[in-house]
Design goal:
The chain has twelve helices and eight strands. The chain has 245 residues and is α/β, with parallel strands linked by helices. Helix 5 runs parallel beside helix 6 (91-102) and helix 5 packs across helix 11 (195-213). The model is unreliable at 240-245 (pLDDT under 50).
């Protein structure tokens, strides 16, 4: 029998007081659930930055960050965890330090680059995965590992002026919706407006907190789409689309 979670300390009650004022969050015991959870964030760049910062700020118990890239000058217009002094430094290490400084109650770890060889181990050691990469090989390795492990994962993408977010799992995964990347381009190829990945990353963080906290309706079987130049948002039903395909 699983023991009940320890009550929040006085410091934690003060730190998380504003989200504890949200009735749905409080009534679901979401803060205690989030504090007990572990999350793997793959990618610490434009999407991963806001995910890492907001999951740390919200009190996620353990964050594991996997990214082997270094900070480049061209990252700084959108990757807000980094400054000029960080150019050339490892993204995962800098992001972990920022997250730890933001919230000492969170345990933050840096993992090796996710590959086909270590994906199962990394995914198996956490409760939820967040795919914040822009590398298509890594995306599909991660998707395959999550489906084999029966693990849910929050997926997002941002390129040019368009963004996408969904919550995938054993019933419907990345390959069911996007069997291959097709002609999709990374930010390095298509460019990206700086605020866009921060908007998309924030939605990804929100979805992760909904899944972890057991609050609201997560985007399971649905695809959130955003067009930055018009402000248009649509939510598509993926289950129907997957069956028709």
């Amino acid at each position: 029998m699983t023991p009940p979670p320890a009550p929040l300390s006085r410091t934690e009650l003060r730190r998380y007081s504003r989200q504890l004022l949200v009735p749905e969050w409080l009534e679901a015991g979401a803060q205690e659930r989030v504090r007990a959870a572990s999350v793997l964030v793959v990618g610490a760049g434009g999407l991963g930055g806001p995910v890492i910062a907001q999951l740390a700020g919200a009190g996620t118990g353990r964050l594991v960050i996997a990214d082997d890239d270094t900070v480049d000058l061209s990252n700084l217009h959108r990757q807000t965890l980094f400054g000029l002094a960080d150019v050339g430094r490892p993204k995962a290490g800098v992001a972990a330090a920022r997250a730890q400084a933001l919230n000492p109650h969170v345990r933050v770890e840096v993992a090796a680059r996710l590959t086909a060889d270590n994906a199962a181990e990394l995914v198996g050691g956490v409760d939820l995965v967040v795919d914040a990469t822009d590398n298509f090989g890594t995306r599909y390795n991660l998707a395959d590992a999550c489906q084999r492990a029966g693990r849910e994962w929050v997926w997002g993408a941002a390129s040019g002026t368009s963004g996408l977010v969904s919550v995938f799992g054993p019933a419907l995964g990345l390959r069911d919706v996007f069997p291959d990347p097709g002609e999709a381009e990374s930010c390095n190829e298509a460019g990206v407006l700086g605020p866009l990945p921060n908007v998309v990353g924030s939605v990804m963080a929100l979805e992760a907190l909904k899944v972890l906290g057991g609050v609201g309706e997560a985007l399971r079987g649905r695809l959130w789409t955003f067009e930055a130049l018009t402000g248009r948002v649509r939510v598509l039903n993926l289950r129907g689309a997957a069956r028709e395909g």
